[in-house]
From TrEMBL:
Protein name in the entry: 3'-5' exonuclease
Domain of life: Bacteria
Residue ranges annotated for the HRDC domain, each copy included: 241-321
UniProt KW keywords: Exonuclease, Hydrolase, Nuclease
UniProt xrefs under InterPro entries: 3'-5'_exonuclease_dom (IPR002562), Exo_C (IPR041605), HRDC-like_sf (IPR010997), HRDC_dom (IPR002121), HRDC_dom_sf (IPR044876), RNase_D-like (IPR051086), RNaseH-like_sf (IPR012337), RNaseH_sf (IPR036397)
Database matches in SUPFAM superfamilies: HRDC-like, Ribonuclease H-like
SMART domains per record: 35EXOc, HRDC
Amino acid sequence: MTQPSQPTDVVPADVVPPADVAPVVVPLTEPSGGVPEVVDSPAGLAKVVAAFAGGRGPVAADCERASGYRYGQSTFLVQLRREGAGTALLDPVALPDLSAIGAAVGDVEWILHAASQDLPGLAEHGLRPASVFDTELAARLLGLERVGLAAVVADTLGLGLAKEHSAVDWSTRPLPVDWLRYAALDVEVLGEVRDVLAERLADAGKSEWAAQEFEAVRTAPPPPPRVDPWRRVSGTHTLRDRRKLAVVRALWEARDASARARDVAPGRVLPDRAIVAAANALPRTAGQLITIGEFAGKGQRRRAATWQRAIDQAMALPETALPSLRGPASDGPPQPRLWADRDPEAARRLAAAREIVAALSEQHHLPVENLLQPDALRRVCWAPPAPATVDSVSDFLRGRGAREWQIGLVAGPLAGAFAA
């Protein structure tokens, strides 16, 4: 990959700063080939396909969404880079089918940062990598304290990557040049970052761990629909009355329908705090509703009848139709804070297991949650296989999605702790 443009005051490679001096970070301010124009026509896409077909090595990729502005998680810009082909910025709204690029590059590796966030958006547009290298996951496995893209670029290459446009409205058209520069820089050095991280993984004996993690994220199925998504309204936990919860549910449903129809982020249609305020006040008329501070603005006053109609529907429900205070039943174990009373032996297993996982995490320099998924740990402690042998614990964890490298580290110690 072509080296990015850099200032001339770079510290020479053979000059090592004292241990108490922070490493010099050189700002990365301009893509090496300049800021590409957005490709939004079939003719432009054909040129990109030809260029990437003639390129070399892996494909670096990133996606930009409009979270907080638009409904859902649609992709509004796709950034791709390949050695010998340069960087392409693609408009997936104008070009919803990008599968020709995937066909052109074949089964080469794709490099992404936090791949789980971008792979669904790429798949929506026909891009399904045959293999991936996730620079965020690699950084986690290596125990880096900060794993955001800018931090990883600084750690691996000594380059400073600005992130001031990460939360802008990427559905904007035309996209400002500054935003496009930012987008191009996000894939500018992913190839170099990947090579440094791959070398570090090999030195640490973690290459196979990484390969298993990358394949797991690449092949992960879409998450199931969330049960009672309205319960995620911020502040709902403060409501201990079923009628008030019914108001939250009704307002959430009305807000979601409006947001979907208008393609606007739900929080911009009606903030969570407004929903909770209405649930606490239980207004009987639209006139009472707009006396609540969160509904006093022009936009909410204009839609007051809609919100009040939802509230009225919740108020008219019979007791049998009101939501539970406890929420939907779960097939998982109870909250760990309840274990000591409900099952002291399970609480003992969990305490021992947490000590084991914490020690292994420290020994191998990686976060606890990357050593073993917390849900899998809780489940095996609450209802371990009987008898708890290395093989039975391994099978249990495998059934909960644990990778072989994780099982190899934790199954034996856990089985021993359960048998003690």
